[in-house]
Every structure is written in C-alpha cells, then in structure tokens.
Amino acid sequence: MPELKIQHILTLAELFAKGARYNFIPITTSSLGKSIRKSQQAASKHLLELEASGYIERLRSGPKVSVRITTRGHAEISKIFSILKVSLETSPSYIEFKGAIISGMGEGAYYMSLKGYAKQFKAKLGYVPFPGTLNVKLKDKEFIEAKRTLDAYPAMMINGFSDDKRTYGWVKCYPARVNNLIDAALILLERTHHDDSVIELISKDNIKKSTKLSTGSQISIRVPIKPSP
Amino acid sequence: MPELKIQHILTLAELFAKGARYNFIPITTSSLGKSIRKSQQAASKHLLELEASGYIERLRSGPKVSVRITTRGHAEISKIFSILKVSLETSPSYIEFKGAIISGMGEGAYYMSLKGYAKQFKAKLGYVPFPGTLNVKLKDKEFIEAKRTLDAYPAMMINGFSDDKRTYGWVKCYPARVNNLIDAALILLERTHHDDSVIELISKDNIKKSTKLSTGSQISIRVPIKPSP
DNA sequence: ATTACTATCTCACGAGTAC
DNA sequence: TGTACTCGTGAGATAGTAA
Asked: Are A136 and A215 in the same domain?
C-alpha cells in the first residue's frame, strides 16, 4: 500500500475537479498534461501509477479512455487536504513578544497622562490608561524583528498635538494580552527614548499589580493579527 | 517569482502547524526532517529554497535559527489549499447514467403492480409507482460499470415474497432524478430478464409523459451518493 | 488522432563530512 | 550539538517515437 506521491496530488485534484469521483470521465493524457502544466508523457505516467496504486480506475471503450477516482483515491487526497486544513486553521494568529519587565514608569507616565493623549485614549480605547507605561525589554532578536513586523500592520492611531511649549508625536496602539490574561495595549511612539529592544504597554489598571509581577519578571505579550484574505 | 515547488508543500505546512506564520519559531533541520519524513539534508535544502523564493524568513541568534513564514508563503500555500478545496467541494456526488429509452413497459408493469411489491413501495417510497417501468439501454461501457458500482451502495430494500404460484425476488431501490427534473427510483431486481446494459426506473407518474420523451430518446439518470466521511 | 515505450536529462534526496 | 556543502544515486520529467 504505497502512499500517494506528492507530485500526484495536483493530478488527482484535477481529476476530481473534472468530476471523476463517482463517474467515469473521458480524458486524454495530453489535455490532462496541459491542465497540470506537465507533458503528455508525464500525465500518462501519473495515470499509470495512480492506477497501479489503486487510486483511480480506467476503462477503455475502443479509442477513448475514461477515468474514475476510487474510494482509496478519495481517501488519500482527503488526507492531504486535512493536513493542510489543520495546519492552516490551527495556526495562531497573533504576534507574540517575550521579555522582562524593566523599570521606567516615570517618563512614560508623564506623557501618557497629558490631556492631549488621555482624551483620545478615552475616545478610541474606551478608557483612560493607568498613568504609567509598562516597559518590557525584549529577550531575543526575533522579538525585535517582530516589533518591526507589527509596525507594518494597521493600528489605531492616537494623533500628535502641541501646546505652547512643544509638540508631541503620534502613538500607534495595538490591542494586546499580557500573559494571555490581562487586556492591554502595546504602543509604538513616534518619538521614544527607548531603543528598539523595548516595548511599552498601557492598560486600564496597573499591570504590575494585576499580574502580581515586578521588575525582572518574564512576561508574554500577544497582539492579535487578522489573517489576510 | 518561482512557483512553490510541490515537494515543499508539506514542509511549509509543517512550519505552519508549528505556529511559524506570525512568529519566529526555533527549529532544527533534523527535527524538521523527521517531521516531513525526509533527511536532515533535505529539510535544510527545503528551507534554503523556501527562503530564496521569499516564502520564509530565517533569523540566526548565535547557534539557534528561527523561521517565520512570510505573507507570500502564506499566499502560496493558501493557493494550493483552495485548489484542493474547490476540487473536493465542487465535485458532484451522484452516479450518472446515460442511455436511450427502450420499449418494454409490459412485463415490468405487471410485476411492479403486484400487491406484494406495491404495498412496500407505498410504505417505503411514499407512493405506489405508475404501473410500468421505464427501461433505458445504457450507452457506454462506463455506465454498465457504474451500475455495478451502484449495486455496492446501500439501498432501500423491497423484500421478495411468494404466492401460491411462485416466488418473487427482492428489489433494490435508489432515489434518482431523470434529466435533472423528474424524481424517480432506479431499481435493481434480483431476477431480471434484461441484460447488464439496461436499467429500469419507476416513478409516481408516467415518466415518458411527464418528460415528453419517447422510445429512442436519450436521457440522463442521476442517483445521489452520500460522500463517505 | 490516441497511449505509452525508450532514452536522456534534471533535480530531489541521502550519505559523508566540513564548519 | 547545529547547518550546509559535495557527490552519487535514482526518481521524475521530456523528447522522440512505436503502436
């Protein structure tokens, strides 16, 4: 009982598409070859091998040949199909960051509680964040790369503003979950004093308190991603 | 822009299953090799080629290597997936017979209107069939083969019986549609005077009349099949 | 026109091994 | 441990051609 050869998948799928599951469908090796973008000879060989393995049956009526897929053939391609289905469907659709909490509640807290930001947070996030950002030092290179990737995804924009002293940059806001437990928002700032390896989080309440974590603790942050069509 | 090689499908699916769509996942070529039932070298080559084609990205952090699937990689495997999906889902699930109406309303009519049969038809089909069977001479070898295939599928059984003169065989009954228009039933008899190339149909009303067809007309009969799990 | 043989070529894979 | 090179083998594809 040989397994379905990987290169026969498209051939079998093509026969399926032509309706050959329950009925004998007339087909020539050259037309089949064109459909699978291979030569007539390759199509011929595919049919011979699929027949030898019991995945299809053929019937000659004089010059014409008809093909039908067997139950075994159906089972084999269904198997491949569900492997792909499971792979694609169970794939988590979030970007995850891992790192350690670092101190730095001071400065971020000041900016985030400015009226110009707070008003927008209330309007767009639905709450005024706890006055203070949670800063996380990313653990590995791949999380820094993930941050760049995230930057390319559409975000909720908090606009910059200015008072008579200075101007304040925009803030990109991504809904996130801390330790798969606490709802928060990962924020990317137009102007930050941190380097690439630090991310900042805001939340309704004090994250350190609600997670009972402190400076140095390892945490996970997940930002959900809508899978593209 | 090279197309995804067919033998890379399972490798890419495996990476997907490991969650490598949005996050860099640490992986070794030997473990990947085991997962795809190929050698470490083959896995290494797959990754190199997938990377060269822009379907995955790799990141080295010292000795460790992490892999992430790109949007392009996602698109490619989705393409393959939908080809299979469409092939499997649009596949019609009926066995079709084509042939010409032949005369022979006499004998079948007699048997089918016997009380022993008629009572069961009423109970199991919901109606007493028009007294007379429609006989169809199958056009090609594949339809005769299809008849054998149909015989292997479960059917509604009309039991045989006997009176004081003789015994009458069982009848297997398959719901069918004539010319995708009229509901009928294809019947397989334990004892028939026809050869393999003829099928018989019964219906509530006179099929010839309701289809406005006559002896010699080509017709199509479709018997729906439940796709196996 | 078909299908499928033989010969040839390419390339996928695995063994061995360098790093 | 890792990855990825070279090289040999054989499977898969095509060209040419027979039936």
From this structure: yes
Residue A68 sits in the same domain as residue A113: no
Q: Which of B16, B94, B228 sits opposite A71 (nearest CB)?
A: B228
Structure tokens at B142: 């594949």
> Measured CA to C1', what is the nucleotide nearest A6?
D12
What is the model's pTM? Answer: 0.89
pLDDT (tens digit per residue) in A45-75: 999 999 999 999 999 877 789 999 999 999 9
Indicate whether A98 and A205 sit together in one domain.
yes
Residue B127 inside a domain? The answer is: yes
**Which bases in strand D are touched by protein, i.e. have an atom under 7 Å from a CB?**
1-6, 12-16
- Would you call B98 an interface residue with chain A, using a CB distance cutoff of 8 Å? no
CA pair distance B205, B217, nearest whole angstrom: 18
pLDDT at B61: 79
- B1 within a domain of the structure (yes/no): no
Give the pLDDT band (50/70/90) at residue B109.
confident
Report the CATH number at residue A19: 1.10.10.10
Same domain, residue pair A85 and A101: no
Count: domains in chain A: 2
Return the HEC string of B159-202. Answer: CCEECCCCEECCEEEEEEEECCCEEEEEEEECCCCCCCCEEEEE
Shared-domain flag, residues B135 and B152: yes
Name the pLDDT band for A6 (thresholds 50, 70, 90). very high
User: What is the nearest CA distance from A97 to chain B, expressed in angstroms?
Assistant: 9
Q: Please indicate, yes or no, whether residues A100 and A70 belong to a single structural domain of this protein.
A: no
Domain that holds residue B58: 6-89
- What are the residues whose beta carbons fall under 8 Å from the beta carbon of A228, sequence distance 6 or more? B71, B74, B75
Residues near A123 by Cβ (< 8 Å), separated by ≥ 6?
A: none
Measuring from the CA of residue B36 to each C1' atom, give the nucleotide at the shortest distance. C13
In three-state secondary structure terms, A60 is: strand
Q: Is the CB of B66 under 7 A from strand D?
A: no
Domain holding A179: CATH number?
Answer: 2.40.30.30
C-alpha A118/C-alpha B75 separation (Å) is: 40
